[in-house]
Protein backbone atom coordinates (compact mmCIF):
# COMPACT_ATOMS: atom_id res chain seq x y z
CA UNK A 1 0.00 0.00 0.00
CA UNK A 2 1.54 3.30 -1.05
CA UNK A 3 1.27 5.98 1.59
CA UNK A 4 0.01 9.38 0.44
CA UNK A 5 0.91 11.99 3.03
CA UNK A 6 -2.13 13.97 4.11
CA UNK A 7 -0.39 16.17 6.59
CA UNK A 8 1.26 19.54 6.02
CA UNK A 9 4.26 19.66 3.75
CA UNK A 10 6.56 20.28 6.70
CA UNK A 11 5.90 16.70 7.70
CA UNK A 12 6.60 15.31 4.26
CA UNK A 13 10.04 13.95 3.46
CA UNK A 14 11.43 13.96 -0.06
CA UNK A 15 14.60 11.99 -0.83
CA UNK A 16 16.66 13.28 -3.74
CA UNK A 17 19.04 10.53 -4.88
CA UNK A 18 22.05 11.87 -6.82
CA UNK A 19 22.29 15.48 -5.70
CA UNK A 20 24.61 16.82 -8.37
CA UNK A 21 23.61 19.81 -10.47
CA UNK A 22 19.88 19.32 -10.91
CA UNK A 23 19.43 17.30 -7.73
CA UNK A 24 20.87 20.19 -5.74
CA UNK A 25 18.69 22.74 -7.54
CA UNK A 26 15.49 20.86 -6.75
CA UNK A 27 16.61 20.03 -3.21
CA UNK A 28 17.00 23.75 -2.50
CA UNK A 29 13.65 24.54 -4.07
CA UNK A 30 11.87 21.86 -2.02
CA UNK A 31 13.59 22.87 1.22
CA UNK A 32 12.62 26.51 0.67
CA UNK A 33 9.02 25.39 0.11
CA UNK A 34 9.06 23.74 3.54
CA UNK A 35 9.57 20.07 2.68
CA UNK A 36 11.96 17.96 4.70
CA UNK A 37 14.66 17.02 2.18
CA UNK A 38 17.32 14.29 2.35
CA UNK A 39 19.77 14.50 -0.54
CA UNK A 40 22.38 11.92 -1.43
CA UNK A 41 25.51 11.87 -3.50
CA UNK A 42 28.66 9.80 -3.52
CA UNK A 43 30.73 12.59 -1.94
CA UNK A 44 28.44 14.56 0.44
CA UNK A 45 31.39 16.81 1.37
CA UNK A 46 31.20 18.26 -2.16
CA UNK A 47 27.70 19.53 -1.49
CA UNK A 48 27.96 20.92 1.99
CA UNK A 49 26.20 24.11 0.77
CA UNK A 50 22.85 22.30 0.84
CA UNK A 51 23.05 22.07 4.63
CA UNK A 52 22.48 25.82 4.88
CA UNK A 53 18.92 25.16 3.65
CA UNK A 54 18.34 22.56 6.36
CA UNK A 55 18.83 19.70 3.89
CA UNK A 56 20.32 16.46 5.21
CA UNK A 57 23.18 15.47 2.89
CA UNK A 58 24.42 11.89 3.01
CA UNK A 59 25.85 9.14 0.83
CA UNK A 60 23.43 6.62 2.39
CA UNK A 61 20.71 6.03 -0.22
CA UNK A 62 19.03 3.36 1.91
CA UNK A 63 18.59 5.71 4.86
CA UNK A 64 17.26 8.47 2.58
CA UNK A 65 14.74 6.24 0.84
CA UNK A 66 13.53 4.52 4.00
CA UNK A 67 12.15 7.68 5.57
CA UNK A 68 10.87 9.28 2.34
CA UNK A 69 7.28 9.91 1.25
CA UNK A 70 8.58 10.48 -2.29
CA UNK A 71 11.88 9.56 -3.90
CA UNK A 72 13.24 11.71 -6.73
CA UNK A 73 16.04 10.12 -8.75
CA UNK A 74 18.42 12.65 -10.30
CA UNK A 75 21.09 10.17 -11.33
CA UNK A 76 22.62 10.03 -14.79
CA UNK A 77 20.78 7.63 -17.08
CA UNK A 78 23.61 5.06 -17.00
CA UNK A 79 23.72 5.03 -13.16
CA UNK A 80 19.97 4.87 -12.68
CA UNK A 81 19.35 1.21 -13.46
CA UNK A 82 22.10 -0.19 -11.23
CA UNK A 83 21.06 2.02 -8.32
CA UNK A 84 17.37 1.14 -8.69
CA UNK A 85 18.28 -2.54 -8.64
CA UNK A 86 20.18 -2.07 -5.39
CA UNK A 87 17.30 -0.12 -3.82
CA UNK A 88 14.41 -2.10 -5.31
CA UNK A 89 13.22 -3.67 -2.06
CA UNK A 90 13.05 -0.48 -0.03
CA UNK A 91 11.51 1.40 -2.97
CA UNK A 92 8.56 -0.99 -2.83
CA UNK A 93 5.36 0.92 -2.11
CA UNK A 94 7.02 4.30 -2.65
CA UNK A 95 6.30 7.05 -5.14
CA UNK A 96 9.41 7.19 -7.34
CA UNK A 97 9.99 10.11 -9.71
CA UNK A 98 12.81 9.66 -12.23
CA UNK A 99 14.25 12.90 -13.58
CA UNK A 100 16.74 11.07 -15.80
CA UNK A 101 16.80 11.84 -19.49
CA UNK A 102 16.06 9.01 -21.89
CA UNK A 103 15.01 6.31 -19.42
CA UNK A 104 11.59 4.92 -20.37
CA UNK A 105 8.96 4.17 -17.72
CA UNK A 106 8.82 0.55 -18.87
CA UNK A 107 12.47 0.07 -17.89
CA UNK A 108 11.89 1.56 -14.44
CA UNK A 109 8.69 -0.41 -13.94
CA UNK A 110 10.44 -3.64 -14.82
CA UNK A 111 12.95 -3.05 -12.00
CA UNK A 112 10.44 -1.54 -9.54
CA UNK A 113 7.17 -3.37 -10.22
CA UNK A 114 5.66 -2.45 -6.84
CA UNK A 115 6.44 1.28 -6.83
CA UNK A 116 4.34 4.14 -8.22
CA UNK A 117 6.52 5.27 -11.14
CA UNK A 118 6.65 8.76 -12.58
CA UNK A 119 9.02 9.95 -15.31
CA UNK A 120 9.63 13.68 -15.29
CA UNK A 121 11.97 16.31 -16.70
CA UNK A 122 12.53 19.60 -14.94
CA UNK A 123 15.06 22.30 -15.74
CA UNK A 124 17.62 24.33 -13.85
CA UNK A 125 15.17 27.20 -13.26
CA UNK A 126 13.46 24.87 -10.78
CA UNK A 127 15.84 26.27 -8.20
CA UNK A 128 13.96 29.59 -8.34
CA UNK A 129 10.50 28.04 -8.86
CA UNK A 130 10.48 29.11 -12.51
CA UNK A 131 11.08 25.78 -14.24
CA UNK A 132 8.85 23.77 -16.52
CA UNK A 133 8.41 20.21 -15.31
CA UNK A 134 6.35 17.86 -17.46
CA UNK A 135 5.73 14.39 -16.07
CA UNK A 136 4.17 11.16 -17.23
CA UNK A 137 2.99 8.01 -15.54
CA UNK A 138 1.27 4.85 -16.73
CA UNK A 139 -0.69 4.58 -13.47
CA UNK A 140 -4.07 6.13 -12.69
CA UNK A 141 -4.47 7.23 -9.09
CA UNK A 142 -5.83 10.72 -8.54
CA UNK A 143 -4.48 11.04 -4.99
CA UNK A 144 -0.93 10.09 -5.88
CA UNK A 145 -0.90 12.09 -9.10
CA UNK A 146 -2.12 15.14 -7.22
CA UNK A 147 0.66 14.66 -4.62
CA UNK A 148 3.22 14.39 -7.45
CA UNK A 149 1.80 17.53 -9.12
CA UNK A 150 1.98 19.44 -5.85
CA UNK A 151 5.63 18.53 -5.30
CA UNK A 152 6.71 19.11 -8.91
CA UNK A 153 4.69 22.35 -8.85
CA UNK A 154 7.27 23.73 -6.40
CA UNK A 155 9.68 23.83 -9.36
CA UNK A 156 7.39 26.12 -11.40
CA UNK A 157 4.86 25.07 -14.04
CA UNK A 158 4.08 21.38 -14.26
CA UNK A 159 1.74 19.26 -16.34
CA UNK A 160 1.07 15.65 -17.14
CA UNK A 161 1.99 14.64 -20.69
CA UNK A 162 2.16 11.49 -22.75
CA UNK A 163 5.50 9.68 -22.46
CA UNK A 164 6.00 9.90 -26.24
CA UNK A 165 6.78 13.63 -25.76
CA UNK A 166 9.45 13.21 -23.08
CA UNK A 167 12.58 13.05 -25.28
CA UNK A 168 11.44 16.15 -27.17
CA UNK A 169 10.67 17.98 -23.93
CA UNK A 170 14.04 16.95 -22.51
CA UNK A 171 15.61 18.68 -25.52
CA UNK A 172 13.30 21.71 -25.49
CA UNK A 173 12.71 22.66 -21.87
CA UNK A 174 15.19 20.43 -20.00
CA UNK A 175 18.17 21.57 -22.08
CA UNK A 176 16.48 24.85 -23.03
CA UNK A 177 18.08 27.07 -20.38
CA UNK A 178 21.48 26.30 -21.96
CA UNK A 179 20.23 27.63 -25.30
CA UNK A 180 18.56 30.70 -23.85
CA UNK A 181 21.60 31.49 -21.72
CA UNK A 182 23.76 31.28 -24.86
CA UNK A 183 21.45 33.86 -26.43
CA UNK A 184 21.58 36.06 -23.32
CA UNK A 185 25.35 35.85 -23.33
CA UNK A 186 25.43 36.82 -27.01
CA UNK A 187 23.12 39.77 -26.33
CA UNK A 188 25.40 40.87 -23.52
CA UNK A 189 28.44 40.62 -25.80
CA UNK A 190 26.55 42.69 -28.37
CA UNK A 191 26.06 45.33 -25.70
CA UNK A 192 29.75 45.19 -24.78
CA UNK A 193 30.67 45.57 -28.46
CA UNK A 194 28.75 48.83 -28.71
CA UNK A 195 30.21 50.17 -25.48
CA UNK A 196 27.79 49.35 -22.66
CA UNK A 197 29.21 48.67 -19.20
CA UNK A 198 29.17 44.92 -18.43
CA UNK A 199 26.65 45.08 -15.59
CA UNK A 200 24.18 47.14 -17.60
CA UNK A 201 24.62 44.93 -20.69
CA UNK A 202 23.93 41.81 -18.62
CA UNK A 203 20.89 43.20 -16.81
CA UNK A 204 19.44 44.66 -20.02
CA UNK A 205 19.85 41.25 -21.68
CA UNK A 206 18.25 38.99 -19.05
CA UNK A 207 15.51 41.48 -18.18
CA UNK A 208 14.58 41.68 -21.87
CA UNK A 209 14.36 37.89 -22.10
CA UNK A 210 12.29 37.65 -18.89
CA UNK A 211 10.00 40.49 -19.98
CA UNK A 212 9.43 39.04 -23.44
CA UNK A 213 8.61 35.63 -21.96
CA UNK A 214 6.24 37.16 -19.39
CA UNK A 215 4.43 39.20 -22.02
CA UNK A 216 4.08 36.12 -24.20
CA UNK A 217 2.75 34.01 -21.32
CA UNK A 218 0.34 36.70 -20.09
CA UNK A 219 -0.99 37.85 -23.46
CA UNK A 220 -1.46 34.41 -24.96
CA UNK A 221 -0.39 35.98 -28.28
CA UNK A 222 1.77 34.26 -30.88
CA UNK A 223 5.45 35.33 -30.63
CA UNK A 224 5.29 36.82 -34.14
CA UNK A 225 2.41 39.10 -33.18
CA UNK A 226 4.42 40.66 -30.37
CA UNK A 227 7.57 40.77 -32.51
CA UNK A 228 5.67 42.76 -35.17
CA UNK A 229 4.78 45.39 -32.54
CA UNK A 230 8.47 45.96 -31.81
CA UNK A 231 9.50 46.44 -35.44
CA UNK A 232 8.86 50.09 -36.23
CA UNK A 233 8.72 50.53 -40.03
CA UNK A 234 12.01 51.99 -41.26
CA UNK A 235 13.25 51.93 -37.66
CA UNK A 236 16.09 50.29 -35.74
CA UNK A 237 14.81 46.77 -34.99
CA UNK A 238 14.35 45.66 -38.59
CA UNK A 239 18.08 46.02 -39.26
CA UNK A 240 18.81 43.71 -36.33
CA UNK A 241 16.18 41.22 -37.52
CA UNK A 242 17.76 41.26 -40.98
CA UNK A 243 21.09 40.17 -39.46
CA UNK A 244 19.44 37.45 -37.35
CA UNK A 245 17.70 36.02 -40.42
CA UNK A 246 20.97 36.20 -42.32
CA UNK A 247 22.59 34.19 -39.50
CA UNK A 248 19.78 31.62 -39.70
CA UNK A 249 19.05 31.94 -35.99
CA UNK A 250 15.70 30.17 -36.24
CA UNK A 251 17.15 27.26 -38.20
CA UNK A 252 20.01 26.98 -35.67
CA UNK A 253 17.65 26.79 -32.72
CA UNK A 254 15.35 24.33 -34.45
CA UNK A 255 18.36 22.17 -35.31
CA UNK A 256 19.64 22.37 -31.72
CA UNK A 257 16.35 21.02 -30.37
CA UNK A 258 16.17 18.35 -33.06
CA UNK A 259 19.77 17.21 -32.38
CA UNK A 260 19.18 17.15 -28.66
CA UNK A 261 16.02 15.06 -29.12
CA UNK A 262 17.88 12.61 -31.36
CA UNK A 263 20.64 12.38 -28.74
CA UNK A 264 18.07 11.48 -26.05
CA UNK A 265 16.72 8.75 -28.35
CA UNK A 266 20.24 7.49 -29.04
CA UNK A 267 21.10 7.32 -25.32
CA UNK A 268 17.89 5.38 -24.76
CA UNK A 269 18.60 3.02 -27.64
CA UNK A 270 22.20 2.42 -26.55
CA UNK A 271 21.28 1.80 -22.92
CA UNK A 272 18.05 -0.15 -23.50
CA UNK A 273 18.25 -1.80 -26.93
CA UNK A 274 15.54 -4.29 -25.96
CA UNK A 275 13.07 -1.41 -25.39
CA UNK A 276 13.68 0.22 -28.77
CA UNK A 277 13.13 -3.18 -30.44
CA UNK A 278 9.58 -3.14 -29.00
CA UNK A 279 8.75 0.25 -30.56
N1 LIG B 1 21.42 19.34 -15.39
C1 LIG B 1 20.15 19.61 -15.72
O1 LIG B 1 19.81 20.77 -15.99
C2 LIG B 1 19.13 18.53 -15.75
C3 LIG B 1 19.48 17.20 -15.61
N2 LIG B 1 18.50 16.23 -15.60
C4 LIG B 1 18.85 14.83 -15.43
O2 LIG B 1 19.35 14.67 -14.12
C5 LIG B 1 20.34 13.66 -14.09
C6 LIG B 1 21.61 14.21 -13.45
O3 LIG B 1 22.11 15.26 -14.24
P1 LIG B 1 23.12 16.33 -13.63
O4 LIG B 1 22.60 16.82 -12.33
O5 LIG B 1 23.37 17.30 -14.71
O6 LIG B 1 24.41 15.42 -13.40
P2 LIG B 1 25.46 15.43 -12.19
O7 LIG B 1 26.61 14.59 -12.64
O8 LIG B 1 25.73 16.85 -11.79
O9 LIG B 1 24.69 14.73 -11.00
C7 LIG B 1 24.63 13.35 -10.78
C8 LIG B 1 24.98 13.12 -9.32
O10 LIG B 1 24.69 11.77 -8.99
C9 LIG B 1 25.64 11.36 -8.02
N3 LIG B 1 25.65 9.89 -7.96
C10 LIG B 1 26.13 9.01 -8.86
N4 LIG B 1 25.91 7.75 -8.45
C11 LIG B 1 25.29 7.85 -7.25
C12 LIG B 1 24.80 6.91 -6.31
N5 LIG B 1 24.91 5.60 -6.52
N6 LIG B 1 24.19 7.38 -5.20
C13 LIG B 1 24.06 8.70 -4.96
N7 LIG B 1 24.51 9.64 -5.82
C14 LIG B 1 25.12 9.23 -6.93
C15 LIG B 1 26.94 11.95 -8.50
O11 LIG B 1 27.86 12.04 -7.43
C16 LIG B 1 26.46 13.33 -8.97
O12 LIG B 1 26.57 14.26 -7.91
C17 LIG B 1 20.53 13.18 -15.52
O13 LIG B 1 19.81 12.00 -15.70
C18 LIG B 1 19.93 14.30 -16.36
O14 LIG B 1 19.35 13.82 -17.54
C19 LIG B 1 17.17 16.55 -15.70
C20 LIG B 1 16.78 17.84 -15.84
C21 LIG B 1 17.70 18.94 -15.95
O1 LIG C 1 22.22 17.52 -20.76
C1 LIG C 1 21.48 16.64 -20.29
O2 LIG C 1 21.57 15.46 -20.68
C2 LIG C 1 20.46 16.98 -19.23
C3 LIG C 1 19.05 16.69 -19.66
C4 LIG C 1 18.36 18.01 -19.72
C5 LIG C 1 19.35 18.95 -19.23
N1 LIG C 1 20.48 18.39 -18.96
UniProtKB/TrEMBL annotation:
Residues 163-266 form the Pyrroline-5-carboxylate reductase dimerisation domain. It is found in: Cytoplasm. The keyword Transmembrane helix does not apply. It catalyses: L-proline + NAD(+) = (S)-1-pyrroline-5-carboxylate + NADH + 2 H(+); L-proline + NADP(+) = (S)-1-pyrroline-5-carboxylate + NADPH + 2 H(+). Its EC number is 1.5.1.2. Pfam families: F420_oxidored, P5CR_dimer. PANTHER family: PYRROLINE-5-CARBOXYLATE REDUCTASE, PYRROLINE-5-CARBOXYLATE REDUCTASE 3. Belongs to the pyrroline-5-carboxylate reductase family. This is Pyrroline-5-carboxylate reductase. The lineage of its organism: Archaea, Methanobacteriati, Thermoplasmatota, Thermoplasmata, Thermoplasmatales. The gene is proC.
Amino acid sequence: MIKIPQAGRDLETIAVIGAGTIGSAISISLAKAGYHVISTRRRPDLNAGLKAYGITVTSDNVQAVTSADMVILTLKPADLVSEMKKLSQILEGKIVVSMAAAVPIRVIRHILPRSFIVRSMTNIAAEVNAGYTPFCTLEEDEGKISFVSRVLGVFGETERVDEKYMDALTALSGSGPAYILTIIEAMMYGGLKVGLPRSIALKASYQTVMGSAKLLAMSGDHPSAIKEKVITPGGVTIDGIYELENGKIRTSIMKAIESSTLKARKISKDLFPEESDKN
